[in-house]
Amino acid sequence: MNLLHTVHVPAGEGPFPTVIAIHGWGASAHDLLGLAPYFLDGEAMVICPQGQVEVPIGPGALGYGWFPLRSGLMPDPSEVLASAEELRQFVLAALAHYPADLERVALLGFSQGGVMAYELGLRETSRFAGIAALSTWFPPQLAEAVPARPEHEGFPVLMIHGTEDFVVPVERARESRETLRPYGVTLTYREFPMAHEIRPSALEVIQHWLLERALGRETG
Fold this sequence. Notes:
single chain, 7-stranded mixed β-sheet, 5 helices, about 30% helix
């Protein structure tokens, strides 16, 4: 597999419902792994890939991103799409390598990782059980590149955003909510009085959404 990653595999033989958890700018493959005990009470497999754009975060310390960010400029769609394709190939390999229930694979992305989750999930709604988009946005340039497929009506999308988020202002989430309408998704949208973070109240909503909307169903 072409990306560094961490993984939580529950006890047992599987196959397991699976969350692909995609970190944000300046973080790493370890950033979201700590949420694994909260996803289906630890019974979901959680795979956390790491972006390859190096981000200096302090003296001698590096974080990682998925595509370059330039002050005052919107993301370059070609860079987003190239990174998303690399991530897509990783996901395919990881799902073949680990004991994943291929009928129950959800994408979860925080901040820049949410942009990646939108690209992967909306392009291939038949492959994934839903998208949890946290403190993120759906760039208009990306929306132009990802076909709207209203025939996939009912595809679950959870959007969670902080009203005090000064990294990705809540107005961008509200705009993204409107951008998503042509995609025929079943949208759950929640705002919380928080900054660019995941607070316990938001995590509780994620837990319920995964159980009730994305990964909790039985397959046969």
